[in-house]
Write a structure and sequence with these properties.
Helices cover 41% and strands 14% of the residues. The chain is an alpha/beta fold. The protein folds into 2 domains: 2-180 and 216-240, NAD(P)-binding Rossmann-like Domain (Rossmann fold), CATH 3.40.50; 189-211 and 245-279 and 298-330, UDP-galactose 4-epimerase, domain 1, CATH 3.90.25. The strands form 3 sheets. Strands 3-2-1-4-5-6-10 form a 7-stranded parallel sheet, sandwiched between helices. β5, α5 and β6 form a beta-alpha-beta unit. α1 (11-23) packs across α7 (218-231). The radius of gyration is 19 Å and the shape is globular. The termini are far apart.
């Protein structure tokens, strides 16, 4: 398959490109990425001279650039490109609207014009909003996004469904829970915690720290996307999640990280809660299991151990990121907390 990946220099997109090149010897990938603060070509250094891989820098919201970049023989678009950090969306929602909504519309439009046979929108469980203990969001549930990030992703999803219905664009959507693994920008909870601790800095815990995310290893997510790409039905939505039982609230994740790094409880700092903070996400994965044959392979303790060790082993990857732009953001983040 000839795949046009957007946002492939970020966390999940770069893991997905590695997954495709490793698992499908006949596939080729064009990676189209704007290289925002979250895009990092170091994530793809080892494949940069692979003849099956090519990188193009560009913005998915710029239709002329997208038209030129997509090869005529493209067989599928997989859209990872997005602004993705909830806290940044609270500080300044605008970029989120441009990329996550308008950019999605541009990709759908070009899929239609060029009659590309497949389009996969990478979405998130955050579009459902938070759910009570014991409840699991299904693909057919109403959308109740809480943050500007989640609202912009939800709007992108609705645009996908509108293009399927109105223009018969062969698109489908995946919605996954929080991912962990290598290459995640250190503004997100797990890499922030690990890298802060290595640097001897405390870890901010929002509110009471009892919020629940259903953490899934990024490799399991990539396998799910690959199955949806090849076997998923047009116009359908597929949830992916670990269905962790018992569930791990944020403080339990942090305790495991503290223990692995040999750090004490004094490195945990409770700070003012995030505005509109979703309490618990959980998704029903029956459909992806029965229709796609997908199931997670990593346990959370193994996934967390491997992830923490990866950041310990790769300071050359994250140290340059925790300067300049990141520090300015971090300062702004804590100015109002
Ligand atoms: P990320 O922030 O690490 O990477 C996003 C990538 O998109 C970066 O490489 C960035 O340069 C690129 N990008 C941003 N705006 C762009 C634009 N206008 N044009 C082209 N490229 C642009 O994000 P991630 O964590 O890898 O998430 C990827 C996708 O998966 C997102 O759509 C996100 O909503 C979704 N998702 C993420 C998670 C998670 O836990 N990280 C869970 C479920 C779904
Ligand atoms: P995050 O990684 O930002 O992902 P999301 O908000 O999209 O789920 O945060 C994961 C959880 O960790 C979430 O409940 C917010 C919390 N959190 C903290 O407690 N402290 C932090 O410094 C960060 C970044 C997040």
């Amino acid at each position: 398959m000839k795949i046009f990946v957007t946002g492939g220099a970020g966390f999940i997109g770069s893991n997905f490109i590695h997954f495709i090149l490793r698992e499908h010897a006949e596939d080729t990938v064009v990676n189209f990425d704007k290289l925002t603060y979250a895009g990092n070509l170091a994530n793809l250094k080892d494949i940069e001279s692979d003849s099956r891989y090519r990188f193009i820098q560009g913005d998915i919201a710029d239709i002329e650039v997208v038209r030129k970049a997509i090869p005529d023989d493209c067989e599928a678009i997989v859209n990872f490109a997005a602004d993705t950090h909830v806290d940044r969306s609270i500080l300044d929602p605008e970029a989120f609207l441009r990329t996550d909504i308008f950019g999605t519309r541009v990709l759908l439009e070009v899929t239609r014009e060029k009659k590309i046979p497949r389009y996969v929108q990478i979405s998130t469980d955050e579009v459902y909003g938070d759910v009570e203990v014991g409840q699991f969001s299904k693909e057919t549930d109403c959308l109740h996004p809480s943050s500007p990030y989640a609202a912009s992703k939800a709007a992108g999803d609705l645009m996908v469904m509108a293009y399927v219905r109105t223009y018969n664009v062969p698109a489908l959507i995946t919605r996954c829970t929080n991912n962990l693994g290598p290459n995640q920008y250190p503004e997100k909870f797990i890499p922030l915690a690990v890298t802060n601790l290595i640097e001897g800095m405390p870890v901010p815990v929002y509110g009471d720290g009892l919020q629940v995310r259903d953490w899934l290893h990024v490799e399991d997510h990539c396998r799910g996307i690959d199955l949806a790409l090849r076997k998923g039905r047009v116009g359908e939505i597929y949830n992916f999640g670990a269905n962790q039982s018992p569930e791990w609230p944020n403080v339990k994740i942090l305790d495991a990280i503290l223990q692995q790094l040999g750090k004490g409880q004094d490195m945990k700092t409770f700070v003012k809660d995030r505005e509109g903070h979703d309490r618990r996400y959980a998704v029903d994965t029956t459909k992806s299991t029965t229709e796609l044959g997908w199931k997670p392979t990593w346990s959370l303790s193994e996934a967390l151990r491997q992830t923490v060790q990866w950041y310990v082993d790769h300071p050359e990857w994250w140290k340059p990121l925790k300067s300049g732009e990141f520090l300015a953001y971090y300062k702004q983040q804590y100015a109002h907390r």
